[in-house]
Amino acid sequence: MKLTKAFCNFLAHSNAKLALLVGLLSPAFAEEVPENDVVFRALGDELKRAMSLHLADLDKPYFVQYSVDDTVTYRTTATYGAVVNSDQNRSRVFQSQVRVGSYDLDNSNFAGRGGVGGRRGLSGSAELPVDDDYASLRHAIWLATDTQYKDAVETLTQKRAYMKDRNLQERAVDFAKAKSVSAIQPRINLTFDRKPWEDYARRISASFESYRHIQNSDLSLAAGAENRYLVNSEDSRLRYSDTGAILRITAGAQTPDGQRISDSLVYYAPSLEGLPELEQVLADVGKLADRFAAMLKAPILEDYTGPVLFDGVASAQLFRQLLAAGVTGQPDPVGSQRRASQGGDDLETRLGKRILPTTFHIYDDPRDRQFQDTFLAGHYLFDDEGVPAERVEIVVDGKLDGMVMSRTPTKQFAKSNGHGRRVGGEAPRSAVGCLYIEAAKGLSPEELKKELIDAAEAEGLKFGLKITGLSGRVGGTSGFGGPGGRFGRGGGGRGGAGRLVGDPISIYRVHVADGREEPVRGCEFSSLDLRSLRRIIAAGNVQTVHNSAGGGAPASSVIAPAILFEELELSRIRQEAEKKPILEAPHARQVRERGP
Protein backbone atom coordinates (compact mmCIF):
# COMPACT_ATOMS: atom_id res chain seq x y z
CA MET A 1 0.00 0.00 0.00
CA LYS A 2 1.06 3.48 -0.75
CA LEU A 3 -0.16 6.83 0.44
CA THR A 4 -0.94 8.92 -2.61
CA LYS A 5 1.04 12.08 -3.28
CA ALA A 6 -2.01 14.33 -3.28
CA PHE A 7 -3.11 12.92 0.06
CA CYS A 8 0.39 13.33 1.52
CA ASN A 9 0.24 16.95 0.39
CA PHE A 10 -3.19 17.22 2.02
CA LEU A 11 -1.71 15.87 5.25
CA ALA A 12 1.17 18.29 5.20
CA HIS A 13 -1.16 21.30 4.89
CA SER A 14 -4.28 20.26 6.83
CA ASN A 15 -4.89 21.80 10.22
CA ALA A 16 -5.26 18.34 11.70
CA LYS A 17 -2.04 17.22 10.03
CA LEU A 18 -3.77 14.10 8.87
CA ALA A 19 -3.18 12.34 5.62
CA LEU A 20 -4.69 9.60 3.68
CA LEU A 21 -4.09 6.69 2.03
CA VAL A 22 -2.75 3.39 2.52
CA GLY A 23 -3.42 2.62 -1.12
CA LEU A 24 -3.94 -0.54 -3.00
CA LEU A 25 -2.25 -1.18 -6.32
CA SER A 26 -3.60 -4.04 -8.34
CA PRO A 27 -1.00 -6.05 -10.25
CA ALA A 28 -3.46 -6.34 -13.16
CA PHE A 29 -2.25 -3.82 -15.73
CA ALA A 30 -2.86 -3.42 -19.44
CA GLU A 31 -0.29 -1.92 -21.78
CA GLU A 32 -2.45 0.02 -24.26
CA VAL A 33 -3.46 3.61 -23.51
CA PRO A 34 -7.30 3.83 -23.66
CA GLU A 35 -8.49 6.12 -26.46
CA ASN A 36 -11.50 7.33 -24.44
CA ASP A 37 -9.36 8.76 -21.60
CA VAL A 38 -9.45 12.52 -22.23
CA VAL A 39 -6.78 13.26 -19.62
CA PHE A 40 -4.36 10.82 -21.23
CA ARG A 41 -5.06 12.24 -24.67
CA ALA A 42 -4.51 15.84 -23.53
CA LEU A 43 -1.28 14.93 -21.76
CA GLY A 44 0.09 12.99 -24.71
CA ASP A 45 -0.76 15.60 -27.32
CA GLU A 46 0.62 18.48 -25.30
CA LEU A 47 3.77 16.47 -24.53
CA LYS A 48 4.51 16.15 -28.24
CA ARG A 49 4.12 19.91 -28.68
CA ALA A 50 6.30 20.63 -25.62
CA MET A 51 9.26 18.82 -27.14
CA SER A 52 9.36 21.45 -29.89
CA LEU A 53 9.63 24.42 -27.50
CA HIS A 54 12.49 26.67 -28.52
CA LEU A 55 13.68 30.18 -27.74
CA ALA A 56 16.31 31.68 -30.06
CA ASP A 57 19.85 30.60 -29.20
CA LEU A 58 18.60 28.61 -26.20
CA ASP A 59 18.26 24.88 -25.58
CA LYS A 60 15.26 22.78 -26.48
CA PRO A 61 13.79 20.33 -23.98
CA TYR A 62 15.46 16.93 -24.11
CA PHE A 63 13.10 15.44 -21.51
CA VAL A 64 9.58 16.34 -20.41
CA GLN A 65 7.41 14.49 -17.90
CA TYR A 66 3.81 15.15 -16.93
CA SER A 67 2.00 13.74 -13.89
CA VAL A 68 -1.60 14.18 -12.80
CA ASP A 69 -3.15 13.29 -9.44
CA ASP A 70 -6.92 13.03 -9.99
CA THR A 71 -8.22 12.81 -6.45
CA VAL A 72 -11.42 12.60 -4.43
CA THR A 73 -11.00 13.07 -0.68
CA TYR A 74 -13.36 12.87 2.27
CA ARG A 75 -12.45 14.19 5.69
CA THR A 76 -14.21 14.66 9.00
CA THR A 77 -12.86 15.97 12.29
CA ALA A 78 -14.48 15.68 15.69
CA THR A 79 -13.86 16.52 19.31
CA TYR A 80 -15.75 15.52 22.46
CA GLY A 81 -18.71 14.11 20.57
CA ALA A 82 -19.18 16.94 18.07
CA VAL A 83 -18.27 16.95 14.39
CA VAL A 84 -16.14 20.02 13.68
CA ASN A 85 -16.23 19.66 9.90
CA SER A 86 -17.13 17.11 7.27
CA ASP A 87 -16.38 17.66 3.62
CA GLN A 88 -15.62 16.03 0.30
CA ASN A 89 -13.26 17.51 -2.29
CA ARG A 90 -12.29 16.74 -5.90
CA SER A 91 -9.09 17.97 -7.52
CA ARG A 92 -6.75 17.37 -10.45
CA VAL A 93 -3.20 18.46 -9.71
CA PHE A 94 -0.79 18.65 -12.63
CA GLN A 95 3.00 18.39 -12.16
CA SER A 96 5.45 19.11 -14.96
CA GLN A 97 9.15 18.45 -15.23
CA VAL A 98 11.00 20.16 -18.08
CA ARG A 99 14.69 19.45 -18.59
CA VAL A 100 16.80 21.38 -21.10
CA GLY A 101 20.40 20.72 -22.07
CA SER A 102 21.34 17.05 -21.93
CA TYR A 103 21.46 14.07 -19.62
CA ASP A 104 25.03 15.10 -18.71
CA LEU A 105 24.26 18.74 -17.90
CA ASP A 106 20.81 20.23 -17.51
CA ASN A 107 18.84 22.74 -15.43
CA SER A 108 18.62 20.52 -12.33
CA ASN A 109 21.02 20.17 -9.40
CA PHE A 110 21.81 23.87 -9.20
CA ALA A 111 21.69 25.85 -5.97
CA GLY A 112 23.65 28.92 -7.07
CA ARG A 113 22.14 32.39 -7.47
CA GLY A 114 18.88 31.71 -5.72
CA GLY A 115 18.58 27.97 -6.34
CA VAL A 116 17.23 26.02 -3.40
CA GLY A 117 18.54 22.53 -2.82
CA GLY A 118 19.13 21.98 -6.52
CA ARG A 119 15.39 21.99 -7.29
CA ARG A 120 15.08 25.41 -8.93
CA GLY A 121 13.90 25.50 -12.54
CA LEU A 122 13.06 21.79 -12.66
CA SER A 123 9.39 21.29 -11.82
CA GLY A 124 6.12 23.08 -11.36
CA SER A 125 2.50 22.34 -10.55
CA ALA A 126 -0.94 23.66 -11.45
CA GLU A 127 -4.62 22.87 -10.98
CA LEU A 128 -6.33 21.21 -13.95
CA PRO A 129 -10.08 21.30 -14.68
CA VAL A 130 -11.92 18.37 -13.15
CA ASP A 131 -14.24 18.23 -16.16
CA ASP A 132 -13.13 15.95 -18.99
CA ASP A 133 -12.90 18.83 -21.46
CA TYR A 134 -10.04 18.24 -23.89
CA ALA A 135 -9.49 21.87 -24.91
CA SER A 136 -9.51 23.18 -21.32
CA LEU A 137 -7.11 20.50 -20.14
CA ARG A 138 -4.66 21.22 -22.96
CA HIS A 139 -4.84 24.95 -22.31
CA ALA A 140 -3.93 24.54 -18.63
CA ILE A 141 -1.11 22.11 -19.45
CA TRP A 142 0.21 24.47 -22.15
CA LEU A 143 0.37 27.46 -19.78
CA ALA A 144 2.14 25.50 -17.05
CA THR A 145 4.67 24.01 -19.50
CA ASP A 146 5.45 27.36 -21.11
CA THR A 147 6.27 28.88 -17.72
CA GLN A 148 8.34 25.86 -16.75
CA TYR A 149 10.35 25.92 -19.98
CA LYS A 150 11.24 29.61 -19.59
CA ASP A 151 12.38 29.00 -16.03
CA ALA A 152 14.38 25.94 -17.15
CA VAL A 153 16.41 27.75 -19.84
CA GLU A 154 17.11 30.65 -17.48
CA THR A 155 18.36 28.27 -14.80
CA LEU A 156 20.59 26.34 -17.22
CA THR A 157 22.10 29.61 -18.48
CA GLN A 158 22.91 30.67 -14.93
CA LYS A 159 24.29 27.23 -14.08
CA ARG A 160 26.67 27.22 -17.07
CA ALA A 161 27.88 30.72 -16.22
CA TYR A 162 28.42 29.73 -12.61
CA MET A 163 30.38 26.61 -13.57
CA LYS A 164 32.77 28.59 -15.79
CA ASP A 165 34.04 30.55 -12.79
CA ARG A 166 34.39 27.60 -10.43
CA ASN A 167 36.91 24.84 -10.02
CA LEU A 168 34.45 21.99 -9.62
CA GLN A 169 35.43 18.54 -8.49
CA GLU A 170 34.44 15.53 -10.56
CA ARG A 171 30.66 15.46 -10.66
CA ALA A 172 28.07 12.93 -11.72
CA VAL A 173 25.80 13.53 -14.70
CA ASP A 174 22.56 15.32 -13.94
CA PHE A 175 20.05 12.70 -15.07
CA ALA A 176 20.14 8.96 -15.70
CA LYS A 177 18.41 7.26 -18.63
CA ALA A 178 15.68 4.70 -17.91
CA LYS A 179 13.70 2.16 -19.89
CA SER A 180 10.20 3.16 -20.90
CA VAL A 181 7.26 1.45 -19.19
CA SER A 182 3.60 1.15 -20.12
CA ALA A 183 1.06 -0.02 -17.54
CA ILE A 184 -2.61 0.96 -17.53
CA GLN A 185 -4.99 0.13 -14.68
CA PRO A 186 -8.77 0.70 -14.68
CA ARG A 187 -9.92 3.96 -13.12
CA ILE A 188 -11.60 3.84 -9.73
CA ASN A 189 -14.19 5.98 -7.97
CA LEU A 190 -14.82 6.72 -4.30
CA THR A 191 -18.38 6.30 -3.07
CA PHE A 192 -19.56 6.19 0.52
CA ASP A 193 -22.28 7.32 2.90
CA ARG A 194 -21.05 10.10 5.19
CA LYS A 195 -23.57 9.68 7.99
CA PRO A 196 -22.37 6.40 9.54
CA TRP A 197 -18.78 7.64 9.49
CA GLU A 198 -19.70 10.95 11.07
CA ASP A 199 -21.45 8.96 13.80
CA TYR A 200 -18.35 6.74 14.12
CA ALA A 201 -16.22 9.86 14.65
CA ARG A 202 -18.70 11.35 17.14
CA ARG A 203 -18.86 8.25 19.31
CA ILE A 204 -15.10 7.78 19.46
CA SER A 205 -14.41 11.44 20.26
CA ALA A 206 -17.22 11.46 22.84
CA SER A 207 -15.49 8.69 24.80
CA PHE A 208 -12.91 11.23 26.00
CA GLU A 209 -15.64 12.93 28.04
CA SER A 210 -15.16 10.16 30.60
CA TYR A 211 -11.49 10.92 31.21
CA ARG A 212 -11.07 13.93 33.46
CA HIS A 213 -7.27 13.79 33.41
CA ILE A 214 -7.05 14.36 29.62
CA GLN A 215 -7.14 18.06 28.75
CA ASN A 216 -7.49 17.95 24.97
CA SER A 217 -8.42 15.40 22.35
CA ASP A 218 -9.06 15.48 18.61
CA LEU A 219 -10.07 12.97 15.97
CA SER A 220 -9.48 13.11 12.23
CA LEU A 221 -10.91 10.59 9.79
CA ALA A 222 -9.99 10.75 6.12
CA ALA A 223 -10.58 8.59 3.07
CA GLY A 224 -9.98 8.94 -0.62
CA ALA A 225 -9.45 7.56 -4.06
CA GLU A 226 -6.93 8.70 -6.62
CA ASN A 227 -6.21 7.98 -10.26
CA ARG A 228 -2.61 8.86 -11.12
CA TYR A 229 -1.20 9.52 -14.58
CA LEU A 230 2.39 9.72 -15.76
CA VAL A 231 3.64 10.32 -19.31
CA ASN A 232 7.12 11.33 -20.44
CA SER A 233 9.14 11.90 -23.57
CA GLU A 234 10.85 8.51 -23.20
CA ASP A 235 7.48 6.90 -24.07
CA SER A 236 6.53 5.84 -20.55
CA ARG A 237 2.78 5.71 -19.95
CA LEU A 238 1.25 4.91 -16.56
CA ARG A 239 -2.24 5.07 -15.10
CA TYR A 240 -2.87 3.47 -11.74
CA SER A 241 -5.07 3.97 -8.71
CA ASP A 242 -4.91 4.26 -4.95
CA THR A 243 -7.60 4.05 -2.30
CA GLY A 244 -7.34 4.25 1.44
CA ALA A 245 -8.30 5.65 4.80
CA ILE A 246 -6.65 6.78 7.99
CA LEU A 247 -7.99 7.43 11.46
CA ARG A 248 -5.92 9.54 13.82
CA ILE A 249 -6.77 10.24 17.47
CA THR A 250 -4.61 12.59 19.54
CA ALA A 251 -4.74 13.52 23.20
CA GLY A 252 -2.77 15.78 25.52
CA ALA A 253 -2.54 16.65 29.20
CA GLN A 254 -0.37 18.46 31.74
CA THR A 255 1.42 17.01 34.73
CA PRO A 256 1.12 18.69 38.17
CA ASP A 257 4.43 20.48 37.52
CA GLY A 258 3.19 21.81 34.14
CA GLN A 259 4.92 19.50 31.65
CA ARG A 260 2.81 18.82 28.59
CA ILE A 261 2.54 15.19 27.50
CA SER A 262 0.85 13.70 24.47
CA ASP A 263 0.01 10.42 22.81
CA SER A 264 -1.94 9.24 19.78
CA LEU A 265 -3.61 6.32 18.04
CA VAL A 266 -3.25 5.99 14.27
CA TYR A 267 -4.94 3.39 12.06
CA TYR A 268 -4.22 2.88 8.35
CA ALA A 269 -6.53 0.86 6.10
CA PRO A 270 -7.19 0.28 2.39
CA SER A 271 -10.72 1.69 2.78
CA LEU A 272 -13.09 3.07 5.39
CA GLU A 273 -14.52 -0.40 5.80
CA GLY A 274 -11.05 -1.67 6.67
CA LEU A 275 -10.76 0.55 9.76
CA PRO A 276 -11.19 -1.13 13.16
CA GLU A 277 -14.65 -1.73 14.57
CA LEU A 278 -15.95 0.92 16.95
CA GLU A 279 -15.62 -1.37 19.99
CA GLN A 280 -11.93 -2.01 19.29
CA VAL A 281 -11.15 1.69 18.95
CA LEU A 282 -13.03 2.51 22.17
CA ALA A 283 -11.03 -0.17 23.97
CA ASP A 284 -7.80 1.32 22.60
CA VAL A 285 -8.88 4.77 23.78
CA GLY A 286 -9.39 3.30 27.24
CA LYS A 287 -5.86 1.92 27.24
CA LEU A 288 -4.57 5.27 26.03
CA ALA A 289 -6.33 6.99 28.94
CA ASP A 290 -4.80 4.50 31.37
CA ARG A 291 -1.33 5.29 30.02
CA PHE A 292 -2.00 8.99 30.54
CA ALA A 293 -3.12 8.38 34.11
CA ALA A 294 0.07 6.48 34.88
CA MET A 295 2.27 9.06 33.15
CA LEU A 296 0.73 11.98 35.03
CA LYS A 297 1.72 10.34 38.30
CA ALA A 298 5.13 9.20 37.07
CA PRO A 299 8.31 10.64 38.56
CA ILE A 300 10.80 12.61 36.44
CA LEU A 301 13.83 10.64 35.33
CA GLU A 302 17.03 12.33 36.40
CA ASP A 303 20.39 11.67 34.73
CA TYR A 304 20.81 8.06 33.59
CA THR A 305 23.64 6.18 31.93
CA GLY A 306 23.12 2.52 31.19
CA PRO A 307 21.41 -0.06 28.97
CA VAL A 308 18.28 1.02 27.07
CA LEU A 309 15.75 -1.19 25.30
CA PHE A 310 13.76 0.28 22.40
CA ASP A 311 10.65 -1.87 22.19
CA GLY A 312 7.72 -2.00 19.80
CA VAL A 313 7.24 1.00 17.52
CA ALA A 314 10.03 2.95 19.27
CA SER A 315 12.70 0.88 17.52
CA ALA A 316 11.20 1.52 14.07
CA GLN A 317 10.88 5.23 14.92
CA LEU A 318 14.53 5.32 15.95
CA PHE A 319 15.74 3.73 12.71
CA ARG A 320 13.55 6.13 10.75
CA GLN A 321 14.97 9.18 12.50
CA LEU A 322 18.60 8.08 12.45
CA LEU A 323 18.91 6.16 9.20
CA ALA A 324 16.12 6.68 6.67
CA ALA A 325 17.29 10.05 5.34
CA GLY A 326 20.93 8.99 5.20
CA VAL A 327 20.41 6.02 2.88
CA THR A 328 18.85 8.17 0.14
CA GLY A 329 21.42 8.97 -2.54
CA GLN A 330 21.50 12.72 -3.17
CA PRO A 331 24.16 14.62 -5.13
CA ASP A 332 25.61 17.91 -3.93
CA PRO A 333 23.99 20.59 -6.14
CA VAL A 334 26.30 22.87 -8.08
CA GLY A 335 26.67 26.06 -6.07
CA SER A 336 26.13 24.46 -2.68
CA GLN A 337 28.61 23.80 0.08
CA ARG A 338 29.14 20.11 0.75
CA ARG A 339 26.80 18.83 3.42
CA ALA A 340 28.35 18.12 6.77
CA SER A 341 27.73 14.55 7.88
CA GLN A 342 25.30 15.07 10.72
CA GLY A 343 23.91 11.87 12.09
CA GLY A 344 22.19 9.91 9.34
CA ASP A 345 21.68 12.60 6.70
CA ASP A 346 24.72 11.95 4.48
CA LEU A 347 25.98 8.38 4.39
CA GLU A 348 27.42 7.86 0.92
CA THR A 349 30.96 8.53 2.19
CA ARG A 350 30.55 5.56 4.56
CA LEU A 351 29.87 2.92 1.91
CA GLY A 352 31.63 -0.31 2.76
CA LYS A 353 32.03 0.67 6.40
CA ARG A 354 30.29 -0.92 9.36
CA ILE A 355 27.46 1.12 10.82
CA LEU A 356 25.67 -1.66 12.73
CA PRO A 357 26.58 -4.95 14.41
CA THR A 358 27.41 -7.70 11.92
CA THR A 359 24.13 -9.49 12.68
CA PHE A 360 22.08 -6.74 11.00
CA HIS A 361 20.67 -6.76 7.48
CA ILE A 362 18.67 -3.85 6.03
CA TYR A 363 16.92 -3.57 2.67
CA ASP A 364 14.19 -1.47 1.08
CA ASP A 365 11.44 -3.17 -0.91
CA PRO A 366 8.22 -1.22 -1.60
CA ARG A 367 6.51 -3.94 -3.62
CA ASP A 368 4.62 -5.72 -0.81
CA ARG A 369 1.30 -4.29 0.31
CA GLN A 370 1.51 -5.50 3.87
CA PHE A 371 3.79 -7.01 6.45
CA GLN A 372 2.08 -9.90 8.17
CA ASP A 373 -1.33 -8.33 8.94
CA THR A 374 -0.24 -4.67 8.88
CA PHE A 375 -0.72 -2.34 5.94
CA LEU A 376 2.41 -0.67 4.61
CA ALA A 377 1.99 3.01 3.78
CA GLY A 378 5.19 3.00 1.71
CA HIS A 379 4.00 0.38 -0.80
CA TYR A 380 4.16 1.16 -4.53
CA LEU A 381 4.94 -0.61 -7.81
CA PHE A 382 6.23 2.34 -9.88
CA ASP A 383 8.00 5.41 -8.55
CA ASP A 384 7.25 8.98 -9.59
CA GLU A 385 9.77 8.86 -12.43
CA GLY A 386 8.11 5.87 -14.09
CA VAL A 387 10.70 3.37 -12.85
CA PRO A 388 9.54 0.02 -11.44
CA ALA A 389 10.24 -0.40 -7.72
CA GLU A 390 13.14 -2.68 -6.81
CA ARG A 391 14.49 -4.35 -3.72
CA VAL A 392 17.66 -2.55 -2.63
CA GLU A 393 20.22 -4.08 -0.29
CA ILE A 394 21.35 -1.31 2.08
CA VAL A 395 23.18 -2.93 5.00
CA VAL A 396 24.77 -6.37 4.69
CA ASP A 397 26.56 -7.94 7.67
CA GLY A 398 26.44 -4.57 9.41
CA LYS A 399 28.18 -2.71 6.55
CA LEU A 400 26.60 -0.02 4.40
CA ASP A 401 26.25 -1.67 1.00
CA GLY A 402 23.83 0.45 -1.04
CA MET A 403 21.38 3.34 -1.13
CA VAL A 404 17.94 3.99 -2.56
CA MET A 405 18.21 6.02 -5.76
CA SER A 406 16.14 8.20 -8.06
CA ARG A 407 17.20 9.07 -11.61
CA THR A 408 19.53 11.73 -10.22
CA PRO A 409 22.93 9.99 -10.02
CA THR A 410 25.66 10.45 -7.43
CA LYS A 411 29.37 9.70 -7.77
CA GLN A 412 28.83 6.18 -6.44
CA PHE A 413 25.49 5.29 -8.04
CA ALA A 414 24.76 5.88 -11.72
CA LYS A 415 21.14 4.78 -12.12
CA SER A 416 17.76 4.59 -10.45
CA ASN A 417 16.51 1.62 -8.46
CA GLY A 418 12.90 2.78 -8.45
CA HIS A 419 12.98 5.14 -5.47
CA GLY A 420 12.41 8.54 -7.10
CA ARG A 421 9.42 9.99 -5.27
CA ARG A 422 7.78 13.36 -4.96
CA VAL A 423 5.57 15.33 -2.60
CA GLY A 424 3.05 17.72 -4.13
CA GLY A 425 4.55 19.76 -6.96
CA GLU A 426 8.17 19.09 -6.07
CA ALA A 427 10.48 17.23 -8.43
CA PRO A 428 11.01 13.55 -7.54
CA ARG A 429 13.99 12.73 -5.38
CA SER A 430 15.25 9.55 -3.74
CA ALA A 431 13.28 8.38 -0.72
CA VAL A 432 12.74 5.15 1.18
CA GLY A 433 9.58 3.14 0.58
CA CYS A 434 9.41 0.12 2.91
CA LEU A 435 12.60 -0.16 4.95
CA TYR A 436 13.13 -3.57 6.54
CA ILE A 437 15.55 -4.03 9.46
CA GLU A 438 16.39 -7.62 10.34
CA ALA A 439 18.78 -9.14 12.85
CA ALA A 440 20.08 -12.70 13.03
CA LYS A 441 19.75 -14.57 16.32
CA GLY A 442 16.84 -12.43 17.47
CA LEU A 443 15.56 -12.94 21.02
CA SER A 444 12.00 -13.34 22.23
CA PRO A 445 10.48 -10.41 24.16
CA GLU A 446 11.02 -12.25 27.43
CA GLU A 447 14.66 -13.01 26.61
CA LEU A 448 15.27 -9.43 25.55
CA LYS A 449 13.88 -8.09 28.82
CA LYS A 450 16.14 -10.48 30.74
CA GLU A 451 19.12 -9.22 28.71
CA LEU A 452 18.20 -5.67 29.73
CA ILE A 453 18.01 -6.64 33.40
CA ASP A 454 21.27 -8.57 33.26
CA ALA A 455 23.04 -5.66 31.56
CA ALA A 456 21.76 -3.21 34.19
CA GLU A 457 22.79 -5.54 37.02
CA ALA A 458 26.28 -5.93 35.53
CA GLU A 459 26.63 -2.13 35.67
CA GLY A 460 25.55 -2.04 39.31
CA LEU A 461 22.27 -0.32 38.47
CA LYS A 462 18.94 -0.83 40.18
CA PHE A 463 17.04 -0.58 36.91
CA GLY A 464 17.38 -0.42 33.15
CA LEU A 465 15.23 1.63 30.78
CA LYS A 466 12.64 0.54 28.23
CA ILE A 467 11.31 3.03 25.66
CA THR A 468 8.14 2.25 23.72
CA GLY A 469 7.46 5.57 21.94
CA LEU A 470 9.34 8.61 20.60
CA SER A 471 8.15 12.04 19.59
CA GLY A 472 8.74 13.17 16.02
CA ARG A 473 12.22 14.36 15.08
CA VAL A 474 12.59 18.13 14.89
CA GLY A 475 12.80 19.04 11.22
CA GLY A 476 12.67 15.35 10.33
CA THR A 477 10.54 13.24 8.07
CA SER A 478 8.52 11.12 10.39
CA GLY A 479 5.10 12.30 9.31
CA PHE A 480 2.63 11.47 12.06
CA GLY A 481 5.96 10.81 13.71
CA GLY A 482 4.73 8.95 16.63
CA PRO A 483 2.80 10.67 19.28
CA GLY A 484 4.22 14.18 19.38
CA GLY A 485 1.39 16.37 18.29
CA ARG A 486 1.07 19.95 19.37
CA PHE A 487 1.56 18.93 22.99
CA GLY A 488 4.81 17.06 22.29
CA ARG A 489 8.04 18.86 22.98
CA GLY A 490 9.68 17.12 20.02
CA GLY A 491 13.29 16.52 19.26
CA GLY A 492 16.00 14.77 21.26
CA GLY A 493 19.43 15.62 22.49
CA ARG A 494 20.73 18.81 24.00
CA GLY A 495 20.72 22.26 22.55
CA GLY A 496 17.59 22.18 20.38
CA ALA A 497 19.05 22.77 16.92
CA GLY A 498 20.41 19.76 15.09
CA ARG A 499 18.72 17.20 17.31
CA LEU A 500 18.41 13.90 15.53
CA VAL A 501 16.04 11.86 17.68
CA GLY A 502 12.75 12.77 19.31
CA ASP A 503 12.32 12.72 23.07
CA PRO A 504 11.02 9.52 24.69
CA ILE A 505 7.33 9.95 25.39
CA SER A 506 6.69 6.45 26.72
CA ILE A 507 9.50 5.25 28.97
CA TYR A 508 9.76 2.76 31.86
CA ARG A 509 12.21 1.77 34.55
CA VAL A 510 12.63 -2.00 34.50
CA HIS A 511 13.74 -2.95 38.01
CA VAL A 512 16.54 -5.46 38.38
CA ALA A 513 15.14 -6.95 41.58
CA ASP A 514 11.78 -8.13 40.28
CA GLY A 515 11.40 -7.04 36.65
CA ARG A 516 8.71 -4.56 37.62
CA GLU A 517 8.09 -1.81 35.04
CA GLU A 518 7.53 1.70 36.36
CA PRO A 519 6.69 4.67 34.09
CA VAL A 520 8.89 7.76 34.23
CA ARG A 521 8.85 10.99 32.22
CA GLY A 522 10.55 14.28 31.47
CA CYS A 523 13.84 13.12 29.93
CA GLU A 524 15.81 13.56 26.70
CA PHE A 525 18.79 11.89 25.04
CA SER A 526 22.10 13.51 25.87
CA SER A 527 23.80 11.99 22.85
CA LEU A 528 22.28 9.64 20.31
CA ASP A 529 23.36 9.55 16.67
CA LEU A 530 24.20 7.08 13.92
CA ARG A 531 27.39 5.99 15.65
CA SER A 532 25.31 4.83 18.60
CA LEU A 533 23.86 2.00 16.48
CA ARG A 534 27.17 0.17 16.78
CA ARG A 535 26.46 -0.18 20.51
CA ILE A 536 23.45 -2.46 19.99
CA ILE A 537 24.09 -5.70 21.90
CA ALA A 538 20.87 -7.60 21.18
CA ALA A 539 17.76 -7.51 19.00
CA GLY A 540 14.33 -9.09 19.12
CA ASN A 541 12.67 -11.60 16.84
CA VAL A 542 9.38 -9.69 16.53
CA GLN A 543 9.20 -6.82 14.03
CA THR A 544 6.93 -3.79 14.34
CA VAL A 545 5.73 -1.45 11.58
CA HIS A 546 5.94 2.34 11.79
CA ASN A 547 3.96 4.00 8.99
CA SER A 548 4.45 7.65 8.12
CA ALA A 549 2.87 10.13 5.73
CA GLY A 550 3.13 13.88 5.32
CA GLY A 551 5.62 16.13 7.03
CA GLY A 552 7.12 17.08 3.68
CA ALA A 553 8.14 13.52 2.81
CA PRO A 554 6.60 10.71 0.75
CA ALA A 555 4.70 8.00 2.58
CA SER A 556 6.96 5.27 3.93
CA SER A 557 7.12 2.33 6.29
CA VAL A 558 9.88 1.13 8.61
CA ILE A 559 9.75 -2.45 9.87
CA ALA A 560 12.15 -3.17 12.73
CA PRO A 561 12.73 -5.47 15.71
CA ALA A 562 13.24 -4.32 19.29
CA ILE A 563 16.87 -3.39 20.00
CA LEU A 564 18.95 -3.22 23.18
CA PHE A 565 21.77 -0.70 23.54
CA GLU A 566 24.66 -1.46 25.83
CA GLU A 567 24.74 2.14 27.05
CA LEU A 568 22.99 5.42 26.34
CA GLU A 569 22.77 8.67 28.26
CA LEU A 570 19.53 10.42 29.16
CA SER A 571 19.00 13.49 31.30
CA ARG A 572 16.16 15.53 32.73
CA ILE A 573 14.59 18.08 30.43
CA ARG A 574 15.35 21.45 31.94
CA GLN A 575 12.88 24.01 30.71
CA GLU A 576 10.28 26.37 32.10
CA ALA A 577 6.81 24.85 32.07
CA GLU A 578 3.49 26.62 31.71
CA LYS A 579 1.09 26.67 34.61
CA LYS A 580 -1.98 24.50 34.31
CA PRO A 581 -5.26 26.24 33.37
CA ILE A 582 -6.97 28.01 36.25
CA LEU A 583 -10.22 26.13 35.66
CA GLU A 584 -10.65 22.53 34.70
CA ALA A 585 -11.93 21.68 31.24
CA PRO A 586 -15.76 21.49 31.10
CA HIS A 587 -15.79 17.73 30.58
CA ALA A 588 -13.49 17.28 33.62
CA ARG A 589 -15.83 19.29 35.83
CA GLN A 590 -18.77 17.21 34.68
CA VAL A 591 -16.93 13.97 35.49
CA ARG A 592 -16.03 15.29 38.95
CA GLU A 593 -19.61 16.41 39.60
CA ARG A 594 -20.98 12.99 38.58
CA GLY A 595 -18.62 11.33 41.00
CA PRO A 596 -17.49 7.71 40.92
Question: What descriptive keywords fit this protein?
Answer:
single chain; 596 residues; alpha+beta; eleven-stranded mixed β-sheet; seven-stranded mixed β-sheet; 8 helices; 20% helix
Short description:
The protein has 596 residues and is an alpha+beta fold. The protein is built from eight helices and 22 strands.
**SS-derived structural category:** alpha+beta
Low-confidence stretches: 9-27, 114-118, 339-344, 474-498
What percentage of amino acids are in beta strands? Answer: 25-35%
Name the overall outline. globular
Helix content: 10-25%
**Cα distance spanning the termini:** 45 Å
Q: What is the radius of gyration computed over CA atoms, rounded to a whole number of angstroms?
A: 25 Å
| Number of H/I helices | 8
Mean pLDDT: 86
SSE order, as H and E?
HHEEEHEHEEEHEHEEEEEEEEHEEEEEEH
Largest sheet: 11 strands, mixed
Number of distinct beta strands = 22
Folded structure, characterized:
With about 600 residues, the chain is of the alpha+beta class. It is built from eight helices and 22 strands. Strands 8, 9, 12, 13, 16, 17, 18, 19, 20, 21 and 22 form an eleven-stranded mixed sheet that branches. Strands 1, 2, 3, 4, 5, 6 and 7 form a seven-stranded mixed sheet that branches. The chain has a two-stranded antiparallel ribbon with strand order 10-11. It is globular and about 80 Å long. Residues about 10-25, about 115-120, about 340-345 and about 475-500 have low confidence and may be disordered.
